[in-house]
Every structure is written in structure tokens, then in C-alpha cells.
Amino acid sequence: MSLFFLACLLAVLPVVSMKSPIFGPQEVSRVEGSSVSIKCFYPATSVNRHSRKYWCKQGARGRCTTLISDIYFSKDYEGRANITDFPEHNMFVVDIGHLTQNDTGHYKCGVGIVNQGLYFDVNLEVIQGPGLQNGIRVYTADVGKKVIINCPFTSENAMQRKSVCKKTGKQCVLVTDSTGYVSPDYSNRAEITIQDTSQLSFSFIINRVRLSDAGKYVCQAGDDSRGDKSNVDLKVLKPEPELLYGDLRGSATFDCTVDPEMARLPKFLCRVNKDKACEVVINTLGTRAQAFDGRILITLKNQGSFSVHITGLRKEDAGSYLCGAHSDGEPQEGWPMQAWQLFVNEETTIPRIVSVMKGVVGGSVAMPCPYQPKDKNSQKYWCRWDEQNSGCPQLVSNEGLVKEQSKPYEGRLVLHEEPGNGTYTVILNQLTTKDAGFYWCLTSGDTRWWFTVELKIVEGREPNLKAPEKAIAWLGDTLKVPCHSPCKFFSYEKYWCKWSNKGCKVLPSQNEASRQASVNCDPNNQLTSLILNPVTKEDAGWYWCGVKDGPQFGDTVAVYVEVKEKAKASHDVSQVNAAAPGKEVIEPRVKVIENQVIKDPSLFAEDKPVKDSGKPEDRSKASADTGSSAGQGGSSTVLVSTLVPLALVLALGAMAVAVVRARHRRNVDRVSIGSYRTDFSMTDLENSRDFGTNDNMGASTITITQETSLGGEDELTATTEDTVETQEPKKAKRSSKEEADMAHTAFLLQANNMATNVQDGPSEA
């Protein structure tokens, strides 16, 4: 019983609904006998497209009687009304002809069932048409236009003073007369003209008609009681606004037209506020409202027409607007203007996008740009909003960089289009502080799907991806370029691509990261390498290393690859190229200045300096680490190429001495001191004394590591050169003095030969 009572109570109570998403004109004025077309917009949903559309008239008690719908016509509308649905434009139009004053009233245009909330209130006013009615001649005029009123008189007053006054209550205030007087309210707007004295009428002309000009006037010829008088009723039609339907977060376009005589004047768009004043939103003189900063654009067209685009629509953008032209770039009363009514639909299908993106100096940003799914074959563009010139020059499209703007963006900018995804992505890398500003996502299709993104540059932070700024590749050899990514990108897809004006083509790459779980991620091992094998001249250019999370693009970093030919042999050692052909030369975050390379050692996390402890094994490790780091300085390479021949000479000399010492092992006396054992030869001391030589010659070139066993085990000796003892047949024993002379002579001959080979040029050995 209680449930039944509650149901009945809800049926009796009025329905309380949210703001209706249906949008139409609030007020419409027409002259009797004319026709009217009323547009009603509705949200773009499949339900609304197939729902019933109707036009009803409200009664005294709030009931709305349907006059016309998709399948119904009332008797009063038969033969003079029609309703047409345009689902592709999300609107329907109600056309009514042969209007009478009985058609004046309050109406609703709606979707679905009457009184269910999906409707919009429209006030229709039908005013008396021009003509003579009850002795009064009626004239009609549009705001901003010109009206010519004909005032007749008799021949008796042909030479008398002519005048026009406007009735205000019981008084008639003079507007103008034939002596040249003009009321201040009509200054530079009103005049009296007489075509010919033979004609028995004069013309009263009002230019740039205002709403306040509406009322009753008295035309008079002569000043006394014998003067001729005629009454005139001027009706000024309110400007019917153009309807503009926009979606929240979407965009709207005002297409404004001006009279040809005002085509060269500054253009403007203003918004009507609560005080009925019209504040300038934007004009061609550089004025722009702060609330529309970065999301409004004015575009001039042919014959004085222009367009104003507003993106990122907000709820507070809805309202009345006026557009026109004036020398001051501001609206002036009486000047012709075009009225607009903007409606912002909050039940929108426009997707949410990031309105502000942040990037770091040297890093990159990937800006997603949604577009209308039905416009998948349309052109996609990306432009930068120009604050000073109120323009937006295009930078890139799905066909590549725009030639006029390409130079500052070579190697930095690309537009990725994902077919069927409803989104294209614009990637900008190598960011600088000058890149901060507003950017627009545009399509050649539905302009309601234009978007604005603000880019902010953050200083003091490092980019996520790290790679060389420049890599030098040798023609015909193999080049390997590393790209380091942090552990937060462990599960992301890594890629390398080659940049061109048309896009960035993905290339095969090698992921050197371990396959262990991300919780055990080694930050020093997250490398993705680009491999070019063999290097050709066409490989020169910009390459990008990037990451992706599914279809969503992430960070990128750019590397420029320079291809060089191998250096030819030269007698001048200083002319040898900074890097040997066939070696991988990668310059991480480098700047090349006069063939010298400055390296940033903090590029990769694994690049750590190795302290020289003085031990041979530590120096060996340090040398290995230095050789494994990407890139060598040009001066270091020249020094190495100079010292290598000298090191070979010293090594051969040391080998000769070692052979001599090996042959006289039997003359060696072994001395044991504790657990340390070594070979000690009295003959060596004698030779050293006699010839003044050093037994450690070449020790700085041949690294020897000795480890002493504390447990009495045999000693361990490791050298960088393999020592091979050659067994010879036994010969007559020579004295140690004679053998030392022979060894020394052989050393001098070998050293001389090596020096000669170095002067003749570098060898392939």
C-alpha cells in the first residue's frame, strides 16, 4: 500500500530535470506575412538521432500542445509548416510560412516525449508589416541598416520649412529639419532630402538604425496651422542571432560577414555581459581577452569576411556575442553587427585531453591529438599559436614538415598517425625554453574537434632517455649507438627510427636489457642499441631512440650520425684521423670543436672513474674501461698512433734480453728469503755493471703481475706477452760477456729496422 502511495505521489509532482542539452533561439522576431526557420540542436547520440522531434505551443497552464512533429501536423499548420531532421549536423529545422500576429507566443522545440526535459524555450514575435494602417504608415528596419521614410505634403507648402519630430509621451521632440539642424541622438545619422520641387514629398533618412530609433514620428511641411502633417510608425527588428552549438572541451567557429564598405576596417568579436555591454574578446588590432589566451584565433577571409575560432570550450563561454568592423576595433551603437548565440553542451562526446604538458630542456614531449572518427581520411595538422600576430602557422602535417617552417624543426618534429585509432601524436624533442607556448591540433574535417595544448618547459631536470648527441660512422664499417633508459621504462617497447621530413621510419634495434623481473632492474643495463652494418653514405642523418606504452608514444631522444670515409695512409702522423677505421666511435653528449671532443662522463650511469692504485692490475682495468667507453678524443688517438711503433721496438728489445737470460738459467743462483723465492744471477749484475744498461728495459711496456703464495705453493707469473723458449742444439759455451755483446748488437739492429719502417708509413700490422 505504501509503495502504491509513493508511486502516485511521484506521478503528481512536477518533473525536475537538469539543464536541457537541446539548444535553439531564445527570441525570434518576424514581420507579418513573412516566414521563419527555427533551428534546434541536440546532442550527437544514436538515441537522439532516432527519437521523435516536435514543435509545441505553450498554454496558460504550462501545457504544451504539439503543432507539428515527424509524423503529425495540426490543422493550423497544414500547408504552411514543416519539420526536417538533419542527423549528420545534430539538428532539426522548423519552417513556418505566412506568419500572422496570432502566431506570436511561447513555443518549445524538443526531442522525444513532450514535457520530458529535452526541449528548448523559444519566444516568437510577429509584428505588424509595413503599409498604411488606421491612417498611420508603418515602416520596418533592421538594426544597423538604413531606412527611408517618405513624407508627403501639398503644393501650398512646397516652399515651406520641412521637419521631422519623434513623439515622446505628449511631446514631439525635433529630430531634424530642412535648415540643417540634427538632434544629438541622430548626429551624422539622420537627414532630410528633397529630390525635386515638382515632387510633393520629401525623404527622411536614418542610417545605422538603432533599437532606440523605434517609435512614432511626425513629418511636417510648414509651421502654422496650415502646415501638412503625416504620422509614421517605425518598427526596428531585433537582430536574430546566429546559433552556434559547441561541445564542452571542443571548439566553435564564428563566421562573420561585414558590409563591403567596411571591409578594410579592423574586425572584432565581443561578448555581451550582464550589463548589456559588449566587451571585446579579440580584434585585428591585437586586443585579446585574458580568459581566451592561447585558445582563440581570428582569420581574415575574402571580401571582408572573417572567422573567429575558440578551442577548449568551457561552460562560462556560453552566451551572446557580436561581431563586426569599426575603426576603433570595438562595437559602436548603430553600426551594423552580426549577433551570435553560443551554446556549450555539457553532455559532450569530446574526449578529455591533457591541456598542459611539461617538458625538460633537452628532452621531449608526445602530444596526443584526438579527431572525429569519421574524419579518418582528413588532413591532420599541428600549428603554433602566435600571440603577437594572432595567427597559427602550421609546422607539420601527416604529409610531413611544412617547408616554410621546417628549418628550426629539422630532426626534432614528427607527426605519427595511427589509422583507426582516432588519435594522432605529435612528438617534439631537443626541447629548449623557446619551445614553450600554445599549440593547436587541427584537421581539415570537423572543426569542432580542434584542440589547444600548452607546453611548459621545466629547467634544472635531466631527460629520461640518454644517448649521444652525435655519432661518427666510418663508411663500410659497423656502427653501434647506445640509448640508455631508466628502470621505469622497463616494460615499455623500445625502438630506433630514422627521421625525415615525412616522418620517422622504425629500424631494427638490439635491446641489451636483461630479462629479469623489473623489481630487480639493473639501471646500468637498460640499453637499446642502433646497429648500422655496413655503414653507407645514405645512413647520415637524424635518428631517434624512443619508448612506447602500447599505442601511446613516450619519450624520445635524437642522435645525429655523421658518415666519414676512411683516412688514407700519410707520411705525416698528425694527419691520421682521430679514430681508427673500423672502430665504433660514439660521442655521448659531445661538442666537436676543432677536431677535439669534449665528453660528458655522466651520460651513462655505468661510466665511473677508476682510481689508479699503482698496481699493474688496476691500471689494466682502467685501460679496459676507457677503451670500452663510447668515443675517444682526437688528440688521444693521435698520441696512441704515435706511441705504438715505439712500444713495439721496446717490446722486441725486451724479448731479446729475456731470451738471453733464459739461456743462462743454469748460471742462476736461487735465493730463498722466507716464503719468497726469486731468481738472482751474479752474471746479470756483472753485465749491468760492465755495460751500464738497465735490466728492466721494456718493463713499462710489458706488464708483469706477480703473486706470492703464503702457503709455500709455487709462484704464479702472468705477462701480457706470450714467452716462447726455443730449444737450440748445444754449442760451445761462450762467456757471459760475449753473449751480452751479441744480444746488445741484435737489439740495436732490430730497433734500427723498426724505426725505418715507421718512417716509410704505418703498416697494417
From TrEMBL:
Main location group: membrane
Parts of the chain that traverse the membrane: 638-660
One GO-annotated biological process of the protein: immunoglobulin transcytosis in epithelial cells mediated by polymeric immunoglobulin receptor
InterPro entries, sorted: CD300_family_receptors, Ig-like_dom, Ig-like_dom_sf, Ig-like_fold, Ig_sub, Ig_V-set
Membrane disposition: Single-pass type I membrane protein
Location relative to the cell: Cell membrane; Secreted
Gene3D superfamilies per record: Immunoglobulins
UniProt keyword 4Fe-4S, yes or no: no
Compositional bias per record (Basic and acidic residues), positions renumbered to this chain: 605-622, 727-742
Entry function: Through its N-linked glycans ensures anchoring of secretory IgA (sIgA) molecules to mucus lining the epithelial surface to neutralize extracellular pathogens. On its own (free form) may act as a non-specific microbial scavenger to prevent pathogen interaction with epithelial cells.
Protein name: Polymeric immunoglobulin receptor
Record organism: Myotis lucifugus
